[in-house]
Write a structure and sequence with these properties.
Elements (H helix, E strand, L loop, with lengths): L1 H14 L7 H8 L1 H28 L6 H9 L1 H33 L4 H13 L6 H28 L17 H9 L5 H11 L3 H29 L16 H34 L3 H18 L4 H24 L7 H27 L1
Helix pairs in contact: 1-7, 1-9, 1-10, 2-3, 2-8, 2-10, 3-8, 3-9, 3-10, 3-13, 4-5, 4-11, 4-13, 5-6, 5-11, 5-12, 5-13, 6-11, 7-10, 7-11, 8-13, 11-12, 13-14
């Protein structure tokens, strides 16, 4: 049971991150029906991909990161494209955490935006040198803090009378939640640590797959509770969910900020590790050079290009992460045995991710 909880907890803490803070806003715009559908279908689709990837890693006895996995499965040219998407998307994810950390600190300490960025960067990069077993235990602590904070926010909203209502559905914003929801539910960076942990602990593939699936499903449920808590108690639903809560009582506002800090930190670490492994193990960079890239690239992108939370979230989620999942699906073809229904579903998801990426790029150019 403990192994099951550790894997599910690792999945939850890897999944829950900065995307959570955009969900109340995008759901409020698109309507609660769209929110329920995106959470349900998103958790189902991504759980399907995560389990496929885990099976492929396990059955192929893979010792490569996703970049190397794609290269071995699809060849060098697709691998180059995948490398750009995977490493670029993951680096953008770190930039998003830096942006949100700065906004959090600005609310706590006016003028503390830069300090928030620096603190998140330092404590997010530091565990790159820790061992996996220690990382798993640290993330379990983070998981407990996240769950407790979300329930506190939700039940306080219930106790307050749940006064706010949102529309059922607004077609003009129907596609707005896609990028934020995909970013929020993304958890494929936990697959390789789960595979390694399961192998060392003697956990069966079936049990590890169930634990991962439960981790993704519970993450979606926690997102729903968090969004409801924000809807019912926040004075205004803002793009980062936090600015509208500035008038909350101190204990509750502090709970939200604590949730944000742990959610970002427990996602920043595995993403940073995935970038390092992709550069070092798959591309062949020296470990020290890969570490330098992980330390410096997010800061450089943050300083030179990206500082708007919601716009970066849309690009990272819809374009980079969507196409990453498409490559995972394509690369696992032929690695595992599957039914015709699973075969059809996987190609349907590839087409969906590709079309969504094209649509998001078109919107970015037009707007």
């Amino acid at each position: 049971m403990m192994h099951f909880l550790r894997i599910a907890g690792l999945m939850i803490t890897t999944t829950i991150g900065a995307g959570m803070f955009a969900l109340p806003y995008v759901i409020a715009q698109a309507g609660w029906i769209a929110g329920v559908l995106y959470l349900t279908l998103g958790a189902t689709a991504l759980s399907f991909v995560h389990v496929r990837y885990l099976r492929a890693v396990h059955e192929g006895n893979e010792r490569y990161g996703l970049v190397g996995f794609v290269r071995r499965a699809l060849g060098h040219v697709p691998a180059r494209i995948a490398s750009f998407l995977i490493l670029g998307g993951l680096t953008l994810a770190l930039v998003i955490y830096l942006i949100l950390a700065g906004e959090f600190f600005e609310l706590l300490f006016p003028g503390g935006y830069v300090w928030g960025v620096a603190v998140m960067w330092f404590f997010g990069s530091l565990p790159l040198l820790t061992r996996l077993s220690r990382l798993v235990m640290l993330e379990l602590v983070g998981c407990a803090v996240i769950v407790i904070a979300i329930f506190l926010i939700f039940f306080d909203g219930v106790a307050g009378g749940a006064s706010r209502t949102i529309s059922a559905f607004d077609a003009s914003f129907a596609f707005l939640p896609f990028g934020a929801m995909l970013f929020a539910l993304t958890g494929w960076t936990a697959v390789e640590p789960v595979a390694e942990y399961a192998a060392k602990s003697g956990v069966s593939l079936a049990r590890a797959s169930r634990a991962m699936t439960w981790g993704t499903v519970l993450s979606a449920l926690l997102y729903g509770l968090f969004a409801l808590g924000i809807f019912w108690t926040s004075g205004a639903v803002t793009p980062n969910a936090v600015a509208g809560a500035a008038t909350w009582p101190l204990w509750k506002f502090g709970t939200l900020l604590t949730l944000g800090i742990f959610a970002m930190w427990t996602s920043y670490v595995p993403i940073a590790l995935e970038i390092k492994n992709g550069l070092h193990k798959d591309i062949g960079w020296r470990s020290a050079v890969a570490n330098c890239f992980v330390f410096l690239a997010p800061l450089v992108l943050f300083a030179l290009v990206f500082k708007d939370f919601l716009s970066v979230l849309g690009i990272a989620g819809t374009v980079f992460l969507g196409l990453e999942y498409a490559f995972i699906l394509l690369a696992t073809k032929g690695k595992i045995k599957e039914s015709r229904a699973a075969h059809f579903f996987s190609y349907t998801l590839v087409a969906l991710f590709a079309l969504a990426a094209v649509y998001e790029i078109w919107l970015f150019i037009v707007q």
